[in-house]
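Why does residue order matter? Because the sequence determines the fold. Keep that principle in mind as you read this record.
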Amino acid sequence: VQLVESGGGLVQPGGSLRLSCAASGFTFSRVHMRWYRQAPGKERELVGYISSDGSNTNYTDSVKGRFTISRDNAKNTVYLQMNSLKPEDTAIYYCFGRSQWGQGTQVTVSS
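Structure:
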C-alpha cells in the first residue's frame, strides 16, 4: 500500500493550489479517503473526507467553501483543490486511506 502526495508549494494569499495523492497497492475505488494537515507546532487535523465512489464529501469548517476534494478512481488518485488560500492554511498536507499515510506535501501561503 502506498500513497504519494504532490502539488504543494509556495503560493500568495488568495491563490490556489491543487494537491494530488496517487494510490497503489490496494483497490482504491473501495476505499474512503481523507486529507489531513499539520501546521508547525500544532496537531494533525482532518481537512476533509470523500467516500469511495466520490458521492459524499465533508470538510472542516475552516475550509468549507474554499477547498474541494475529488477523486478519479480510474487513475487511483484523490485531489484537494484549495482556493482563496490564507496564511493559516500553511501546513504539511497528508492523504490517508486504508490505514496508510502518505509522506506529505508542504503548502506555504505567504506574500
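The chain is about 0% helix and 50% strand.
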